[in-house]
Amino acid sequence: MEQTTVTLEFGPSYRKVEVGAIAILAQDAPLKLDSGAEIAAFPLAYQTYGRLNADASNAILICHGLTGDQYVASTHPVTGKPGWWESVVGAGKIIDTDRYFVICPNVLGGCMGSYGPKAINPKTKKPYNLEFPVLTIADMVRAQKLLVEQLGVTKLFSVIGASMGGMQALVWGSLYKDHVRSVVGIATAPRHMAQNIAFHEVGRQAIMADPEWKEGNYINEKRFPAGGLAVARMTAHVTYLSQEALSRKFGRNLQDRERISYGFEADFRVESYLRRQGTNFVERFDANSYLYITRAMDYFDLAADNGGRLSDVFKGTRAEYCLMSFSSDWLFPTSETREIVHALNGVGANVSFVEIPTDKGHDAFLLDEPRFLEALAGFIRRVGKSADAN
Amino acid sequence: MEQTTVTLEFGPSYRKVEVGAIAILAQDAPLKLDSGAEIAAFPLAYQTYGRLNADASNAILICHGLTGDQYVASTHPVTGKPGWWESVVGAGKIIDTDRYFVICPNVLGGCMGSYGPKAINPKTKKPYNLEFPVLTIADMVRAQKLLVEQLGVTKLFSVIGASMGGMQALVWGSLYKDHVRSVVGIATAPRHMAQNIAFHEVGRQAIMADPEWKEGNYINEKRFPAGGLAVARMTAHVTYLSQEALSRKFGRNLQDRERISYGFEADFRVESYLRRQGTNFVERFDANSYLYITRAMDYFDLAADNGGRLSDVFKGTRAEYCLMSFSSDWLFPTSETREIVHALNGVGANVSFVEIPTDKGHDAFLLDEPRFLEALAGFIRRVGKSADAN
Q1: Where does a domain end: B295, B318, B344?
Q2: Nearest to A201 among B193, B271, B291 (CB)
């Protein structure tokens, strides 16, 4: 197995950072994408935690969300911050790396080493930029399947994901029924709804309106649409939180001042918080990747991609499913999760469903939300026991 | 009374358009703003409909929202479209201009002829731009009071507003208790909440990130931050609609095509709709006005501005109040309106309240929403009868 590490450039300053393991996939035969494009010998970056057991039955695939990456349980090389789900994944934790072999790939189209718009087109010796093929969630999953096989895993103990990661988990359950023992979909949906497409479109327009975007070719000139990407992130970030969480966390509290300034500085804490979200994000994320990944989410419609009936998607599944939603998540509301649960029930699948009461909004899966963590731990324990019994 | 019309320039092309009646206010004594700044002999643009009766008892003041203007019931000189509330205001309509004298001013800080950041600073002979004083909702109301007096009205039959217009109506009821017979607040709030501040901040950042904004001085160079302003409008527009309305109106329907394009064109109808909202908006609105008016809304906190207790704000009122909210309005949810109603009840005020069941979101007040229109008509009729009886 070919494996390497690469140095990538990040942010407006094109700071060089070494990114971990890379697998080169589809070396023997190209991978055909939904658009019709074919890609071959392409890199997929990933991290693993724990060890694969002798019968390769303990592998858990974790699928990240829109702006996540493979650093699920180890320090992020760009930001220096802990992995995005270190509270859940690690030795002795809910997803116990003493017991399970955890694989977390950076999605196809991502910017942390996986094949994406920053990749160099061998014909032009320049980045693909917008000539990179437009992707779907299923394309991301097909690439993950190649990686999982290359790592010696035929059947996953579980595939787990939240938000866009949950979309991927559902596609795994649909495309590779015999290769997943269990599927966990958190704060996700069977399709991307109009409001979510609308918010993504706002973000894309913010990026594309930034003159530094250069019609997508900013890397060629070492420019960067930092302003547009920051605005895209700020918009999205507001949608990840609930109104209650924002009110509780910030209310109308002022930032480092006693009175309003009668100016356009960040008077309110929520403003300075948002500005920080924007400026931090552009240091670690690529603007074109943001376009490609949001587009893949917008295109996601599991039923339409499978003849129109959602239950048909899951026909014949023997996997155990766990679906979880958060009561205050208005981006991926419980009603969307219920549609998945109904479809699974419709084909007699083994499915657990819980709506977690919380005021933390969509991002609750990243936070210390005890009832959510208990439910997740309980499901993994149960699947583990039924696996032991087989 | 001095009155004139002016020609203003609009949009990225600086197209010249004649705008209607302008009153010059605060000619004898300057108006002191909340920031401490003083303004004198400033213009306020307005439209009137109907005739003031002999005892000046039939005047209704209509306060517009963030991006509205004085063209409430007549053709808009820039867009050529009908007034923004022509379905409600006019001869024989709910707000009957055969019976009432309707006044609709463009807010202080606005861009349709009222004193705002586009105004010329007599000292520099250039637009004020960001040297224009930052405003509050109360400042806008104080300017309206001067206009109403100049038009010969001491006591308004009603002051009516939705969204930011509702904030103004509440301030009228608070500052000028003896000068309003009734107050109608639609889809409004006693303060601007964290989530709303956050969305406004995203819009402001989009404008300020546009290099064409030129640190606020774009007019001096005949430039225009069209891209940033369009993104600000698109973000806001999504928040004006409900998820249900967006799903019903657009769902995942494609625009002028049978299949997705695997590209970044507007595949989905909701995308092309949003892009159109953005491009139309920049033709009629000023970017700096957008900064000033959103800021005024963010600063709005009726209780805090009056010692901390919302009920104190309304103490001693004899006006009849009508508060209305829309069940699917997540920007100005019913819970916010309820706080106003509780405060009014707390001081024994005469208050009607109704939550209109609708899936049309915040913008329902602009749409054909029969139960809302009936409630509004009923309240105006009732106040009219009690006025006749006095």
Answers
A1: B295
A2: B271
Query: Are B45 and B143 in a shared domain?
Result: yes
Q: What is the CATH number of the domain that holds A288?
A: 1.10.1740.110
What is the domain extent for residue A285? 196-295
Residue of chain A nearest B203, judged by CA positions: A231
Cα gap B182→B199, rounded to integer Å: 32
Which positions in chain A touch B201 (Cβ < 8 Å)? 234, 266, 268, 270-271, 274-275
End position of a domain, from candidates B269, B295, B321: B295
pLDDT tens string B27-36: 999 999 999 9
DSSP notation for B165-183:
HHHHHHHHHHH-GGGBSEE
Q: Which two tokens stand for residue B75?
A: 């053709």
Question: Is there a single domain that holds both residue A120 and residue A143?
Answer: yes
Q: Estimate the crossing angle of helix B287-299 against helix B226-240, to 10 degrees.
A: 40
pTM of the model: 0.95
Q: Are residues A94 and A111 in the same domain?
A: yes
Q: What is residue B2's predicted lDDT score, i.e. its pLDDT?
A: 47
pLDDT of residue B33: 98
- Same domain for A113 and A55: yes
In a domain, B136, yes or no: yes
User: Are A346 and A317 in a shared domain?
Assistant: yes
Angle at A307 between CA A302 and CA A313, to 5 degrees: 50
pLDDT-derived band at A390, boundaries 50, 70, 90:
low
Provide the H-helix boundaries in A210-333. 226-240, 243-249, 269-284, 287-299, 310-314
CB contacts < 8 A, A to B, total 160
Q: Is A247 a catalytic residue?
A: no
| Residues A117 and A130 sit within 8 Å (Cβ to Cβ) | yes
Mean per-residue pLDDT, A257-267: 91
Tell me the residue ranges of DSSP E strands in chain A. Answer: 3-10, 15-25, 31-32, 38-39, 42-49, 59-63, 89-90, 95-96, 101-105, 120-121, 126-127, 158-162, 182-186, 320-326, 350-356
Q: Do B298 and A268 touch (CB under 8 A)?
A: yes
Instruction: Provide the percentage of residues in chain A whose pLDDT is more than 90.
Output: 93
Same domain for A313 and A348? yes
User: What CATH number does residue B345 fall under?
Assistant: 3.40.50.1820
Nearest-by-Cβ selection for B238 from A202, A204, A262: A202
Number of domain units in chain B: 2
Do A127 and A32 belong to one domain?
yes
Say if residue B224 is in the same domain as residue B151.
no
- Is A74 considered catalytic here? no
Under an 8 A CB cutoff, do A243 and B130 touch?
Answer: no
**Alpha helices in A210-267, H assignment, sequence order:** 226-240, 243-249
